[in-house]
Design goal:
Number of domains of chain A: 2
CATH superfamily of the largest domain in chain B: P-loop containing nucleotide triphosphate hydrolases
Oligomer: heterodimer
Shape of chain A: globular
Distance between the termini of chain A: 41 Å
Number of helices of chain A: 24
Radius of gyration of chain A: 25 Å
Radius of gyration of chain B: 19 Å
Helix content of chain B: 25-40%
CATH architecture of the largest domain in chain A: Orthogonal Bundle
CATH topology of the largest domain in chain A: MetI-like fold
Number of strands of chain A: 4
Shape of chain B: globular
Number of strands of chain B: 10
Largest interface: A-B, 29 and 43 residues
Number of helices of chain B: 9
Largest sheet of chain A: 2 strands, antiparallel
CATH architecture of the largest domain in chain B: 3-Layer(aba) Sandwich
Largest sheet of chain B: 6 strands, mixed
Helix content of chain A: over 70%
Number of domains of chain B: 2
CATH superfamily of the largest domain in chain A: MetI-like
């Protein structure tokens, strides 16, 4: 009765739940119903049609196969990179390079990967020319595998690298002193603590491959996967929304299973509190081997992207390779392309702003309120659901619900779609940051006359600024590169760069594709650099002051 | 005068405090002493108003505070972890409350507190640059600016060591004396409680085991709990110290506190 009523937090909770009800649960329910609705009431007919029709089961099998193979390969490669960073005596600068280079693919849309592969390994490709012969057939399994591995490598690397930084390196020393063989030491003190993270990496990569549309759209060829079937049902030459809804539901099943697995793995993951820092043992062979292997992996990944720096700047690849800025200039003099770029920037910026605000509000209700556990669980469940739903499924659900409403063909609907699609990670980042803060701040500030809102503005938000910037940057970059959901909801006037790339593919205008891809990369690099600068700038001030601090005088106590 | 009558509190059917009765005079320092889980922090939170009581009365100057919201009671607390705001420097932390209520302390009063607690040279520093003792003094100053009618301190010394502990003790005593401020301190350390306060309230299993002056508790322990757990601890400490100083190890210098 004396306890503060927390009306503000209840209001925020209500708003967050309302947004997710309208823009997540209702569209999903609509999609679910659509898949069961026939001309004469409920039916399983669409499912029967899909399951027996044009090679759906084959596509489904293909998806499972290619996703599994990619996930295993990616996890193995990411392990090598992370091991080089955390367990080898390599120069600090080189380790920094590995960590940074491994995540570069994140800054490009997946649809670009495919075209980069075509222009690198295709018959006239850059790398094919270097080798003098085509290394492998790029359309179908091989191309998809390469694309998926590049796509998921950053995520897998971040997961493994994070856990490795927390694994106690002293165990390795103890194990060796106790007389274990090097192999036994490796298995017991490196592999075993990482087992769950390796599994999580596999599952996460599988999920990303299974639900990605950009890569099969460009290099899928005859090798049909679920994502291409889904696209063709919805936007192909003979669209059938009911069948599309069925396919979307079928895509949801493996997604739900993988996320449930991920959740399970996370729950039993060992939580370490502090990063362990020990001197790494000498091992010249190990260091050389992992140093070279890492360089090779990154060279392969980055060489694929080399073409996007080459093709748009030459006259006509591969026949006339004089340097020219003609293509770049033509893109920026094409008013429709300029509009597309402007749309993308507006969408990315608004997504980042609205997304950060939503994640912050949601995290405040779970991390800094006394609402009952069941109420907080609602937010947790929302976060879990958004993590489960593939972008394509959200896009299709929006297409079904918002077509014909004033929201159709607006930038607003793209923004809200991105906010919801990418909600999970920013929310968890925000929550963990807020939960770490001193639990007594609100009480203390209230005793000094603050209202709740004042405390949030004067104390909590300034201290959460680092994480807010990270969340902002995460949303911004993802909004720039996403294609899977927006492809279904971007209209003629609300086209963004990624959907434009898909359209340009249709007209085989690859110079424009690469110029636009470069533009996305440049914007994302600039954005990341800017947010990093703002964050470290704050850090620097802190460090400077700490250095200046005089020795604490004993008498002061 | 703060009077507590028949105060009760339970969580989820488990009784934390049974029927607590006590009276604290104005300007007194009272320590609430007991093992962890005995209910001492709950009692502090009940007085502060952070927690609702199940029954009983909390009378301050004759007025029942039980239904008065926390922020209107006029009591204030320094939490064990200080809850200082890391985005603000020392001075801004100390004057935080003035932004909401500029007239509560005059400029001179704030300056006096800064000098009393020896914080003048630290005013521009960030919180993370301070030692534990300095943080404690900043938190004390920040709370004192609000001119609390009762000052509550949750384990104010447990994170501090050695000489710093003694200097903070002296500051707490000085504040209570200079401002004639009723001060209630939660602690689990008998030595702290008995050397710092005018009266000690020993709680065990949610009931008052003994409430009296330090001298009375040492001379006339009322039950086995006080004897075995409180006094015995002090006796062991005393013997350890005596052993250390017995064989010609006379102290070479006079003890200094300040």
């Amino acid at each position: 009765m004396n306890r503060r009523k927390e009306n503000e937090i209840k209001g925020i909770f209500g708003l967050v739940v309302l947004v997710f009800l309208i823009f997540l649960l209702i569209p999903l329910a609509r999609l679910f119903l659509k898949s069961f609705m026939g001309d004469a009431g409920p039916t399983l007919g669409h499912y029967a049609e899909v399951l027996t029709g044009r090679g759906f089961l084959e596509a489904f099998g293909n998806s499972l196969l290619i996703s599994s193979v990619s996930a295993v390969m990616t996890t193995a490669l990411a392990f090598i990179l992370a091991y080089a960073v955390h367990y080898c005596n390599l120069p600090k600068g080189y380790k920094g390079f590995i960590s940074r280079a491994a995540v570069i693919p994140m800054l490009l849309p997946t649809i670009t990967y495919g075209f980069a592969i075509i222009y690198s390994f295709g018959k006239q490709g850059l790398i094919t020319q270097l080798f003098g012969a085509q290394l492998f057939d790029i359309y179908g399994f091989n191309g998809l595998l390469l694309g998926y591995v590049i796509y998921t490598l950053p995520v897998s690397f971040l997961l493994l690298s994070n856990t490795m930084s927390y694994v106690d390196k002293k165990f390795s020393i103890v194990s060796r002193i106790m007389g274990d063989s090097p192999f036994a030491t490796f298995v017991r003190t490196v592999l075993r603590p990482l087992l769950r993270t390796l599994a999580a990496s596999f599952v996460q990569c599988f999920f990303l491959c299974f639900t990605d549309y950009g890569i099969p759209a460009s290099v899928g060829g005859e090798f049909e996967v679920v994502a291409t079937v889904l696209y063709n049902e919805m936007l192909g030459s003979v669209p059938n929304f009911s069948r599309g809804a069925c396919v979307a539901m079928m895509m949801l099943i493996p997604s739900m299973v993988t996320i449930a697995l991920l959740h399970y793995l996370e729950k039993y993951n060992i939580r370490y509190n502090k990063i362990s820092q020990t001197e790494i043992r000498k091992g010249a062979v190990r260091d050389t081997a992992f140093g070279i292997l890492s360089a090779l992996i990154l060279l392969c990944v980055l060489s694929v992207f080399a073409v996007i720096f080459v093709v748009p700047f030459v006259d006509e690849w591969p026949y006339r390779i004089q340097f020219t800025l003609e293509h770049v200039i033509s893109v920026f003099s094409d008013s429709s392309l300029v509009t597309v770029c402007r749309n993308s920037l507006i969408v990315a910026f608004l997504t980042a702003a609205a997304g950060s605000l939503t994640a912050y509000g949601a995290a405040l209700t779970t991390a800094r309120s006394h609402l009952p556990g069941k109420v907080k669980q609602v937010i947790e469940n929302i976060s879990l659901i958004t993590n489960t739903i593939p972008g394509m499924v959200i896009g299709i659900a929006y297409m079904l619900v918002f077509s014909g409403t004033p929201l159709q063909n607006t930038l607003f609907i793209i923004v809200i779609c991105n906010v919801i699609h990418y909600f999970s990670t920013p929310y968890l980042m925000m929550k963990s940051s807020l939960a770490k803060m001193n639990a007594s701040w609100e009480t203390t500030a209230m005793l000094m006359g603050d209202t709740w809102l004042k405390t949030i503005v004067r104390v909590v938000t300034p201290n959460a600024m680092g994480t807010i910037l990270e969340v902002f940057s995460y949303y911004f970059v993802n909004a720039m590169v996403t294609v899977s959901a927006v492809i279904f909801i971007a209209g003629a006037r609300t086209m963004v760069i990624t959907t434009k790339i898909k359209e340009l593919q249709y007209y085989t205008k690859f110079n424009e594709v690469f110029v636009l891809s470069l533009l996305i990369l440049a914007v994302n690099l600039a954005a990341k650099g800017l947010f990093h600068y703002i964050a470290t700038d704050r850090q620097k001030i802190k460090v400077k002051r700490t250095v200046r601090r005089p020795v604490i005088s004993k008498s002061a106590g | 005068m703060l009077e507590i009558k028949n105060l009760k509190k339970s969580y989820d059917g488990i009784t934390i405090l049974h029927d607590i009765n006590l009276a604290i005079d104005d300007g007194e320092i009272v320590s609430i002493l007991g093992p962890s889980g005995c209910g001492k922090t709950t009692l502090l939170n009940l007085i502060l108003g952070l927690t609702d009581a199940d029954g009983g009365e909390i009378l301050f100057q004759g007025e029942n505070m039980l239904r008065v919201p926390m922020e209107q009671r006029g009591f204030n607390i320094v939490f064990q972890d200080y809850a200082l705001f890391p985005n603000l420097n020392v001075y801004k932390n100390i004057t935080y409350g003035l932004r909401n209520n500029p007239s509560i302390s005059t400029k001179q009063e704030v300056e006096d507190l800064i000098d009393l607690l020896g914080l003048r040279e630290h005013l521009d520093k960030k919180i993370e640059q301070l030692s534990g003792g300095q943080k404690q003094r900043v938190a004390l100053a920040r709370t004192m600016v609000m001119k609390p009618k009762i000052l509550l301190l949750d384990e104010p010394l447990s994170a501090l060591d050695g000489v710093i502990k003694e200097s903070i003790k002296a500051k707490i005593k000085q504040i209570a004396r200079d401002y004639h401020l009723t001060t209630i301190i939660v602690t689990h350390d008998p030595e702290e409680a008995l050397t710092l306060s005018d009266k000690v309230l020993i709680i065990q299993n949610g009931t008052i085991s003994q409430y009296g002056k330090p001298d009375d508790i040492i001379q006339k322990p009322e039950n086995d709990f006080v004897k075995e757990f409180i006094l015995n601890q002090l006796l062991i400490k005393k013997n350890n110290i005596f052993t250390l100083f017995r064989q010609g190890n006379e102290p070479q210098m006079a003890a200094q506190v300040g």
